User: Fold Molybdopterin oxidoreductase from Amycolatopsis alkalitolerans.
Amino acid sequence: MNLRPSTSHWGAFSAGLEADGRVRVEPHPEDPAPAPLLGNLTGSLRHPTRIAAPAIRRGWLERGPGPDPARGHEEFVEVGWDEALDRLAAEFRRIRDEHGNHAIFGGSYGWASAGRFHHAQGQLHRFLNAFGGFTSSRNTYSYGTSAVVLPHVVGSSAEVLRNGSSWPTIVENTDLLVAFGGVPEKNVFITPGGVTRHHTPGFLARLGERGVDVALVSPLRADIPAAVHPRWYPIRPATDTALLLALAHTLVTEGLHDRAFLDRYCTGYEEFERYLLGAGDGVPKDAAWASAITELPAADIVALARRMAAARTFITVTWSLQRIEHGEQPVWAAIALAAMLGQIGLPGGGFGHGYGSMGDTGDIGPDFRGPHLSQGINPVQEFIPVARIADMLLDPGGSYDYDGTVRTYPDIRLVHWAGGNPFHHHQDLNRLRTAFSRPDTVVVQEPYWTASARQADFVLPATVPLEREDFGSGRRDTHLVAMHQVAEPFAQARDDHAILAGLAARLGIEERFTEGRSPRAWLAHLYESWRKRLLDKGISVPSFVDFWTAGELRLPGADEYRTLFADFRSDPVRNPLPTPSGRIEITSRRVRSFGYPDCPGHPAWLEPSEWLGGPRAERFPLLLIANQPETRLHSQLDGGAVSQAGKVAGREAIRLHPEDARARGIADGDVVRVFNDRGACLAGAVLSTRLRTGVVQLPTGAWFDPVDSLCIHGNPNVLTADLPASRLSQGCTGQHVLVEIERYDRTPPPVTIGAPPRIEKVRRRCREHGAGSVPGT
Ligand SMILES: Nc1nc2c(c(=O)[nH]1)N[C@H]1C(S)=C(S)[C@@H](COP(=O)(O)OP(=O)(O)OC[C@H]3O[C@@H](n4cnc5c(=O)[nH]c(N)nc54)[C@H](O)[C@@H]3O)O[C@H]1N2
Ligand SMILES: Nc1nc2c(c(=O)[nH]1)N[C@H]1C(S)=C(S)[C@@H](COP(=O)(O)OP(=O)(O)OC[C@H]3O[C@@H](n4cnc5c(=O)[nH]c(N)nc54)[C@H](O)[C@@H]3O)O[C@H]1N2
Ligand SMILES: [Mo]
Assistant:
């Protein structure tokens, strides 16, 4: 079989089609640790939930656009491409003429697929910009809180998130690694855009071989590979800030903090120290205080602080820790603690953020951007912090705080999503359903009948990467991969580019959108412009034709040894941080001046509402950790073999401690109902002693499958609160939620992941059959 090169967010591979339409996948030969997730691709092209033809919700066809509580509850009617695009173009015109471009929400957050040209959001944003602009979204669900607080503390989030100390530097120099949230190996196979060589599992193995002292601070034992031999600190979730403060308190009271470093490189330490000592509130943040909050022994906290002061210590905090209420605090407190240790900028010392959150954190590939498509300029200034989508739809004209400003939600009439699944990724999905009933029209471009597609008025079937040509490379990738077409498009599916080109043609902006190029001509054009930019820097890469024929190209260079803020340390006057003081701001006057009670001027312990120590835990006594799934990327390919193999009793697996299970009469393999006052879901019980009692773990991404307010499949976002991290960042807080669990003794209904929704197949004026030619391309 002729296998062709391709790549994905979980890595490069080659693929071919078996006679039965299944995909044969082989990992890239140079990948030392291919992702198990590749196994999800096998049956993906012809899965029963592929969308075969453009479809419109019956109520929209019959009653026209407008807010409609029936959205998400009605059948779809298949229409031809011409009818779908004609009707949609007319609706775009109406919205623009009656309400203006800002009434279009095109934030369209989501991971879509790898590939630089056919990147769904990029294509959509380019189209919407050509149409006169749209309300956009800012930041990410991944690190939307850190992205706002880090600039105040160290001047830039990109520096920390993209140029953090590299793994070889850590592996060779660190004596003690203190990992808040661990370094979960399950996550490191993922890098946006995909990488060809997964280096991180090898670095984790070397940590173990070198015998680096590792402190795993996490409710889950699985958050670092066992071969690392960590000491496990099974902290109570959401209390890491208290632990960090107590470690800092121990350093001060024992005189172990580095005064010279604090004087030279930091500002606002004194105020923070007064807080640590309890000067204002009479509460010293000592180990005994933290022990009551974290449920870790005080002696262990003191001992850890002493070990940290005595060794070359690296503190890392996973992104999950900022995806909770007051998520700014653990990140800021970790930086303050690292500053007190005085090792920031020294090899193997200091702090980092997102080791084990993403494959590119600490990776060693060259740091240059591959060829990419320009999105143009958005003339509309309106935006929302990304996780405020439901608030925006439910409260047009409402005001909210954001990073020192007061903003107003626009009145959105049309929502267009391509390459994301908000009914997987957003919190409080029952509330989101109400929010999605408000706009006049909802458009979703998708290969699959996801929950979001089922909530749309217009469902436009998109191809998947194996059905088109592209190229791809992730951040710090070692290769640029030519993505050859492996299969014909499924049924009537079209590339996102072709869908939008067809719409652009009807709106008179086709030339601006396509610039008269075919996709292949775009690939050659983008590649050759990139090649020329490289040549200007003295780097020579082959021509497009040679690259395409070879199927890949090895990117020159590597970035093996890096230490975050080494330049700043070596000369803080010539290389100041871009903060107001030019230094690390342990207290930020600017943040303090905003006057937010949920994000004061220095790191502080603020009690969240969803944690085991508060009043809500009396009603819902288990803290659910909704982390990233080991068996897939988010909700993608949930129907795939690897994802399905992880299901228990046909539902997503929920892990709980045998003691918590026994108290509820739950046995391994039981279907359970997980609930709180926002909603409920079913899940399959897995008993495990590798998590602390009182904590349960249900990863994200099981396709939301609602029967009234119950998700019968196990999506935790039916339970999570739609609350921001704080008024500063408005970041996502989906990682934690309080729940109760009971055995589900009724016969659970089968999940719909295996089947499409109700669709009426016949339709007048359906002229096209199969994957016809695209008007205007
Ligand atoms: N409770 C809780 N919720 C969370 C999180 C959490 O920790 N806890 N984590 C959050 C995080 S960090 C993230 S990043 C989000 C992820 O949320 P999303 O990025 O929305 O999740 P995905 O499942 O990757 O959705 C991508 C969608 O794009 C579709 N797609 C793939 N290729 C193409 C294409 O070529 N064209 C088109 N049109 N569509 C395509 C896929 O089928 C899929 O439905 O979830 C967030 N949600
Ligand atoms: N296989 C796979 N990998 C992925 C993804 C995926 O969907 N699948 N998604 C990718 C994306 S988009 C992102 S943004 C990253 C996200 O990266 P992260 O947000 O860092 O990943 P999570 O798995 O959600 O959380 C990491 C660990 O934090 C721990 N944790 C949770 N709460 C607490 C707490 O209060 N205290 C402490 N100390 N630990 C806690 C959990 O045990 C959890 O396993 O992952 C990426 N990697
Ligand atoms: Mo993410």
User: Anything to note?
Assistant: Confidence is low (pLDDT under 50) at residues 764-777.
